[in-house]
Amino acid sequence: MESIHNVAEIPMGLGHSPADLRALGLIAEIVAALRNGSSAPQMVEERTHRLGDIEIDEHFRTVSACGREIALRPKEYDLLIALARKNGAPASKRELFENVWNYDVATDSR
Q: Which residue in 32, 54, 28, 29 sits closest to 41, CA to CA?
């Protein structure tokens, strides 16, 4: 499997469009809530995660905030679900690279 040694090598696919900025804002909001000790995402029903007003449905690959669906690109969704599956526990860089980008990252990479 291919190894990544520099984060800059990863194609993020995020630009500066309003949809991209909303997706980044949603991810930042979830990360901040988890860091501040807010309740961890809880399983509402099988394959559905809830963090405050944010609901993630793995079966339909949908995300909604305050009842409004948020459009995410596939990698944005994969990153969000990888964090939600940790139930508030920290996610290592290695886990994220493997689960989201399917890259085997060298342990000493920065």
A: 54
H or E segment to which residue 23 belongs: helix 18-35
- Sequence-distant (6+) residues with CB within 8 A of 28 are none
Q: What is the pLDDT of residues 53-73, one digit of tens each?
A: 889 898 888 999 998 999 999
- How far apart are alpha carbons 7 and 14 in whole angstroms? 14
6, amino acid identity: N
What pTM was estimated for this model as a whole?
0.55
Q: Which residues contact 58 (CB under 8 A, 6 or more apart)?
A: 47, 48, 49, 81
